[in-house]
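Late entry, written up from scratch paper. The run itself happened at the end of the previous shift, but nothing got recorded in the book at the time, so transcribing now.
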Amino acid sequence: MNTLSYITVDVFTSTRFEGNPLAVISDARGLSDAVMQKIATEFNYSEVTFVLPPEDPQNSAHVRIFTPTMEIPFAGHPNVGTAYVLGQQAKIFGKPVGDTLRFEEKAGIVEVSLKRSGGKVVATAIRAPQLLTIGDTIAAETIARCVSIDPSVIVSTTHAPVFASVGLNFAVSELNGLEALAAARPDLAGFQGAAGRQATNGHDFSLFLYVRTSDDPWHIRARMFAPLDNVPEDPATGSASAALGAYLVSLAPDRDMNVRITIEQGVEMGRRSIIALDVVKSGGIVTDVVISGSCVPVMRGEIGLQD
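Output as recorded:
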């Protein structure tokens, strides 16, 4: 039997069995697109990554990211976790591993910094591959139908529900408190209706809900739902967090800012995750978003490809 090695890690946590699980295939040479998709569907994690040699030798690797239903151009926790796994190796496709990595992805080049303790990689930080883009606004009633809540709990003081992206598109919406956030339950028909009406740049309708207070506006609690991708709820979503953080900083009145944002996600699932964002704004434009977090190894094994 031909076999394929994999490693799983929990991302955006230092506690095993919390955070967001990720499977990494650190050498995916020879796999077809169809086989990659089947493996991702079999794991049924939010994402699985497949690492290939870079097309440009100046880069570290070519990384492909699959949900249970489709390939996507970029995501936060797969990059953080993949960098953590590759950072444990002495070499990547024959090239020594340093303190920085560059991943080729559909959304562009993703730069990664490795954070070490006692010589071992314990956390990684990635730079979002694209500048912030804002899409169409979304009716509060559409958001409410998706997650079975009353439209009155949706807050539009800072912004209306809207699409935002720094590499992958999400609908983002603020709620009026933790009680409303805890009450959210994904409704498949609501998501199907939203995806049919809204333009999402080729990505299924995925919804990032959040709560924050005026006392501590840069500490955010969030939940993310993507049932159309067979992800009823995601414990940690770095790409959505980055898009939201960039958007909120863009709306702040200061023209120049350097903000550290903490997003806590997955609490309602029993998989608490902590996502750190560093957002830079210069001359009124968000110029840089860095997503960072810790990881912890969980499993390693082999996948049988043929009898």
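The longest helix spans residues 238-251.
(Scratch paper discarded after transcription.)
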